[in-house]
Design a protein that fits this description.
Layout: E1 2-4, H1 7-18, H2 25-43, E2 53-58, H3 61-75, E3 80-85, H4 93-101, E4 105-106, E5 116-120, H5 132-143, E6 167-171, E7 193-197, H6 207-213, E8 215-219, E9 233-235, H7 238-244, E10 259-263, H8 270-281, E11 287-291, H9 295-301, E12 306-308, E13 319-322, H10 330-341, E14 346-348, H11 351-356, H12 359-366, E15 372-374, H13 378-385, H14 393-404, E16 407-410, E17 416-418, E18 424-426, H15 439-452, H16 457-476, H17 483-500
Helix pairs in contact: 2-3, 3-4, 7-17, 8-15, 15-16, 15-17, 16-17
């Protein structure tokens, strides 16, 4: 599992490491990694190396210095390198001298044609969006326009040979992105590749910053042993999920594998019952019990599911999923109350979140001894927290988790999972195709099955989001995606995990 660190922790680690090294060593390491990645991108062009051109957009301070030293290394390879200085009186002197000595040169305006643009305007200490003059410069360099919009679509940024856009490489962080939160206030660079140094930053992984970072490549400059305290964010990978996912053993039966109860659906939304049940059946439990008004539809579609009409009649379970399409009437409130009273882990979604946001069920939620996972989208989050997540999605999720004593799975393109102890995770497999009706029901069912199989609540939430995202990607290969497609794709996504294991 990878870790992401806030700016303060990175700065402190850099200071500690630099005290043990000759001056300039860290910048040299960073510049070398940046130049290597830029050269590889240029080598993928029809005519590699010679004849290629790079434009450096150079701001003040060390971020600009990294770009200049990398430009010098590229110039020594025979690549044409030009630099536009956004703050000439504050340009890194050593980096500028190195660029000129290697054959690079400074220009006042971007050339008409370049193959690659290096964004070295703002570093991880930058706050707010690009200034208007910088935004216009970036727009001209990247898109060939002058409308002040710094972001160019990544799918078009493939270099000017043949008339496309240049590849855009950000130094440490796309300029205009907040390194700690991923917030973008105003204009920001949209990179194809971000080469970040020493440690991942949260702003590359969550919020609008994640979509502007493109492919993120971490260059090791030796910070690892010097990073102190707890990371701001954890990023799971295939190996983590393959190790966590419960698998049946030769001694198991349907009960020892776990039983999950699904209290979802209503006359108005019977499909929610179907989708949440489908998600639960794809999970690791040995048995699914359904409790709700869609019993006949569930029995017909899923004969293995034991279906009743009320939570009280469902029988023993090891976890409950509740809320998808349930409604918010008195009957629904009674079912949510029954689920909250059960001495088992619970996943609450959709209408259940609306109900527990009220004063009565909120008290029952806070009083639970067993783990609870809440799976809100932004508007549901606002009902629970009194306001939408805002620019700092990780911080908002962590605060709500601590306040409610529950795991919070804040849905989005980069879903955030926060625990009451302050730890947070971001799901790297999210995809915009999941923004369609019913996919959240599938996620809730899968998550409940993981809880029923005995996985701790945080891991269950992380694992469900990860596999759900993979399923969305699998489903997207066959055209427009529906919740049914995502449910059907859960099994091939899991097969992929098991191959790793």
């Amino acid at each position: 599992m990878r870790a992401a660190w806030r700016v303060a922790a990175v700065r402190a680690a850099e200071d500690s490491l630099m005290a043990t090294l000759p001056a300039g060593t860290l910048m040299a390491r960073a510049a070398s990694g940046l130049a290597r990645r830029c050269a590889a991108l240029l080598d993928n062009r029809p005519t590699p190396g010679y004849g290629r051109s790079v434009l450096l957009l150079v701001g003040a301070g060390n971020n600009g210095g990294d770009a200049l030293y990398a430009g010098a290394l590229l110039a020594r390879r025979g690549i044409g390198v030009a630099a536009v200085l956004l703050a000439p009186d504050r340009t890194h002197a050593g980096g500028l001298a190195g660029l000129r000595a290697a054959g690079g040169h400074v220009v006042g305006t971007p050339p008409e044609r370049v193959d690659l643009v290096v964004d070295g305007i703002l570093g991880i200490g930058g706050r707010g969006g690009l200034r208007p003059d910088a935004a216009r410069l970036v727009s001209r360099a990247i898109t060939g326009g002058a409308d002040g919009r710094a972001a160019g679509p990544a799918e078009g940024a493939r270099g000017s040979a043949g008339g496309g856009r240049p590849v855009v490489v950000a130094v440490d962080l796309p300029s205009g992105v907040d390194a700690d939160t991923g917030a973008v206030v105003g204009d920001a660079v949209r990179a194809d590749v971000t080469v970040t140094f020493g440690a991942l930053k949260p702003g590359l992984l969550v919020g609008p910053g994640a979509t502007r970072a493109g492919l993120v490549e971490l260059v090791d400059i030796g910070l690892g042993p010097w990073l102190r305290g707890e990371p701001a964010l954890w990023v799971p990978d295939h190996d983590d999920l393959a190790a966590w996912w419960p698998r049946p053993s030769a001694d198991d039966d349907k009960y020892t594998r776990g039983v999950v109860g699904v209290a979802t659906g209503s006359a108005a939304y019977p499909g929610a019952a179907m989708m949440s049940t489908a998600g639960a059946l794809a999970g690791p439990t040995g048995m699914v019990r359904y409790a709700g008004t869609a019993t006949e539809a569930v029995r017909h579609r899923y004969p293995s599911v034991v279906a009743t009409e009320r939570v009280a009649d469902a029988g023993r379970v090891q976890a409950w999923v509740c809320g998808c399409g349930l409604g918010t009437d008195e009957r629904a409130a009674a079912e949510v109350r029954a689920v909250l009273a059960a001495d088992v882990p619970v996943c609450l979604d959709a209408d259940a979140l609306t109900l527990v946001a009220g004063p009565v069920l909120s008290r029952e939620l806070r009083g639970r001894a067993q783990p609870t996972v809440l799976t809100p989208h932004d508007r549901e989050f606002a009902r629970l927290a009194g306001g939408e997540p805002g620019d700092d999605r990780v911080g908002a999720a962590v605060r709500l988790a601590a306040e409610l004593g529950a795991v919070v799975l804040l849905k989005g393109d980069r879903t955030v999972i926060a625990a009451p102890d302050g730890s947070a995770y971001v799901n790297p497999t999210g995809t915009p195709v999941l923004a369609t009706a019913g996919t959240g029901d599938v996620l809730a069912g899968l998550l409940g099955s993981l809880l029923g199989a005995g996985l701790p609540a945080v891991r269950a939430a992380v694992a469900a989001a990860y596999v759900h995202g993979l399923a969305g990607r699998y489903a997207a290969g066959s055209g427009p995606v529906t919740a049914v497609d995502v449910a059907d794709a859960l099994r091939p996504a899991l097969a992929d995990l098991w191959r790793v294991r």
